[in-house]
């Protein structure tokens, strides 16, 4: 049995969108499961729309998601001479022909097809002209030809698709596609087939918007006498409203999901489960995904992207990540988060130590790294704190009096720990007859400037004696 070779082949006309990321993931999982290779090809033949920043964004997105590829990245445009050579070979063996039809003639063909209720197709008028090349050139009146595939006209082309099942295309509906444009540049259809053949690709996994292309490309493989790879065309991702996922549904680029504070492992798990399932099971480690993935279990109907589900999954991943590892991910991601650069600029070893101490409490209340950063903002606040509306409401005269009375008791603590601080506060509550909330809430407002925060005694310990007492006295005043 030959080695399993898959490929991911994005066009660098924009960022790595979420549908492309899922396609890359499915290719990666299948290759890793079979001990094969996943190759990366950048389809940059559209020179006007392909950009270096887009290529960089695709490579960065793949790396961030942890989808490593095998071998060097292949650039399609650099292989144009090879694509042209294959077209010339097809001309020489009679599997392709030069077509001199003008734009006006092509438009007339389309118009006639519309009138007769047929799909617009090239009518093949240059396909079987007898005579010499010189006679053909004379007929062409100086026009430069395109090179067209001589596609089969009878019967049908059958695709045995691993997701869609058996799909049949009547050959009369598939016209003679263009292989080389009149300026000699290869078309996408030719380039894809030549590249997949030369790269040894055995399994193609791509969006089901390419299903008709599979039939057309099969004709090129057959014309060259090459093995046709196995196909799997996966449904596109839809938004919650059932429409094809588009910009109006919100963030689409993988880089945007990083900026929204998702962990790569959580996004990978969520994407794997989008359109592929194994019963009701939601959570898979990377190794479990590699072992469990199967094209047989990919659904034929479009999957719906659900932000609430992703957020929930991300929150569970954050809580399941060890504090030190989550801190490392948080620090790496901080420059990408909204206003994260300002926070990142203020991080030193002391701040890292504070963040690590606070992490257990912070991650319990956060579903994304943005929420984690928001929860950690009390560590970066500078005295005197600005209080939010809830904190201002809490800090009434009675609350301030409690804070003023509590400050010297806390200051007298020999050990500044959450446990010791809690004992002092509980003793004060017992002594004054106040409720715990009447003391804890003002403490929270004083220490964080907010009405919500991680556990208040953990906050006291994390801030340290001097900063915590300073904030309490500021609020009491």
Automatic annotation (TrEMBL):
Residues 5-311 form the Glutamyl/glutaminyl-tRNA synthetase class Ib catalytic domain. A motif ('KMSKS' region) lies at residues 244-248. Its main location: cytoplasm. PROSITE patterns: AA_TRNA_LIGASE_I. Residues 342-475 form the Aminoacyl-tRNA synthetase class I anticodon-binding domain. ATP binds at residue 247. A motif ('HIGH' region) lies at residues 10-20. GO terms for cellular component: cytosol. SUPFAM superfamilies: An anticodon-binding domain of class I aminoacyl-tRNA synthetases, Nucleotidylyl transferase. Pfam families: Anticodon_2, tRNA-synt_1c. It comes from the Bacteria. Keywords: Aminoacyl-tRNA synthetase, ATP-binding, Cytoplasm, Ligase, Nucleotide-binding, Protein biosynthesis. It is an enzyme of class 6 (ligase). One of its GO terms (biological process) is glutamyl-tRNA aminoacylation. It is found in: Cytoplasm. It catalyses: tRNA(Glu) + L-glutamate + ATP = L-glutamyl-tRNA(Glu) + AMP + diphosphate. Catalyzes the attachment of glutamate to tRNA(Glu) in a two-step reaction: glutamate is first activated by ATP to form Glu-AMP and then transferred to the acceptor end of tRNA(Glu). Belongs to the class-I aminoacyl-tRNA synthetase family. Glutamate--tRNA ligase type 1 subfamily. NCBIfam families: gltX_bact. Monomer. This is Glutamate--tRNA ligase.
């Amino acid at each position: 049995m030959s080695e399993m070779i898959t490929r991911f082949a994005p066009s660098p006309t924009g960022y790595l969108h979420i549908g492309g990321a899922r396609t890359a993931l499915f290719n990666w999982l299948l290759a890793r499961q079979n001990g094969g290779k996943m190759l990366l090809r950048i389809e940059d033949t559209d020179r006007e729309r392909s950009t270096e920043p887009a290529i960089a964004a695709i490579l960065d997105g793949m790396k961030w998601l942890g989808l490593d590829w095998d071998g060097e990245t292949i650039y399609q445009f650099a292989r144009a001479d090879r694509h042209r050579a294959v077209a010339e070979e097809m001309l020489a063996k009679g599997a392709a022909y030069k077509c001199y039809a003008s734009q006006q003639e092509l438009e007339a063909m389309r118009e006639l097809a519309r009138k007769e209720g047929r799909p617009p197709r090239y009518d093949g008028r240059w396909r079987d002209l007898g005579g010499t090349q010189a006679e053909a050139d004379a007929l062409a009146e100086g026009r430069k030809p395109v090179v067209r595939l001589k596609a089969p006209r009878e019967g049908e082309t059958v695709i045995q698709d691993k997701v869609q099942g058996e799909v049949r295309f009547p050959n009369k509906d598939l016209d003679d596609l263009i292989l080389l444009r009149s300026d000699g540049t290869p078309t996408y259809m030719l380039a894809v087939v030549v590249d997949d053949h030369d790269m040894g690709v055995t399994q193609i996994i791509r969006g089901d918007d390419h299903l008709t292309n599979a039939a057309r490309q099969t004709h090129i493989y057959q014309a060259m006498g090459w093995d046709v790879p196995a196909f799997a065309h996966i449904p596109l991702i839809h938004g919650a409203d059932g429409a094809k996922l588009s910009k109006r549904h919100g963030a689409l680029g993988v880089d945007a999901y990083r900026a929204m504070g998702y962990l790569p492992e959580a996004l990978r798990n969520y994407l794997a489960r989008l359109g592929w399932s194994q019963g009701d099971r939601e959570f898979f480690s990377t190794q479990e995904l590699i072992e469990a993935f199967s094209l047989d279990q990919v659904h034929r109907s479009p999957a719906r992207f659900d932000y609430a589900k992703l957020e929930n999954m991300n929150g569970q991943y954050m809580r399941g990540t060890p504090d030190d590892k989550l801190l490392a991910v948080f620090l790496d991601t901080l420059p990408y988060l909204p206003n994260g650069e300002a926070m990142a600029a203020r991080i030193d070893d002391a701040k890292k130590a504070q963040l690590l101490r606070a992490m257990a409490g912070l991650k319990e209340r956060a579903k994304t790294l943005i929420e984690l950063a928001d929860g950690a903002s009390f560590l970066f606040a500078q005295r005197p704190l600005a209080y939010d509306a809830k904190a201002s409401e809490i800090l009434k005269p009675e609350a301030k009096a409690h804070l003023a009375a509590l400050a010297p008791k806390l200051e007298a603590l020999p050990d500044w720990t959450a446990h010791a601080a809690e004992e002092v506060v509980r003793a004060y509550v017992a002594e004054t007859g106040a409720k715990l909330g009447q003391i804890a809430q003002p403490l929270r407002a004083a220490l964080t400037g907010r009405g919500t925060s991680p556990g208040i005694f953990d906050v006291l310990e994390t801030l340290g004696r001097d900063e915590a007492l300073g904030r309490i006295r500021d609020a009491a005043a």
